[in-house]
Design goal:
mainly alpha, elongated, two-stranded antiparallel ribbon
Length: 200
Amino acid sequence: MTKRTRSFSGSLMFDDETRDALYLNVGRCLSAWNQVEDQILHLTQFALEAGGHRDATFAAGYWMVVSFDARLKLCNAMISYALRGSRNEDFKLRWDTLNNRSHAKSRKRAEIAHGSVVVTRERDQDQFHAYFFPYYHKRQFDHHASGGFWKGESFSGTTKHLRVEDLQNIAAAFNRLRDDIAELQSDWVKRDILAKDGEQ
């Protein structure tokens, strides 16, 4: 497939296709992460109901907490409490793994949320290229502070950037995490339904 390019500043060429793909996949990453957070909320609400402590106002409290780390700690405390006891040991081990994965993936989400798509060109080249830089403004400051700018060093050449494929893989990882959290909730619901049927 031929790249869509347009003339820019005379003979220079601008890479429209890569830039647009980067913007698109940044959006997909952030959208996928939002679904991870939402799925954690659903699991936590079920934990409250399963433990006999249903609170219809919990969702409002969950989203009032700005920090995801704080929300995750809150949910972890309640889910862990609901899963206490040997009967829930397998589910508790699964949740512990999901909790750790959520914490780790939130760091990647922060990189993307505080990153930026940058269009630039290397010295002695006529082609503009689009890059996505995690934590762009901090890294740009560090680049200037280290003297790289004044030495003529390329920012894009010295700073880690993410490709379209990298962003697609990150979004896919977020989606897998969401699905695994949903699967735990589904298995938990089925287990409790079967247990109630067995008591009747």
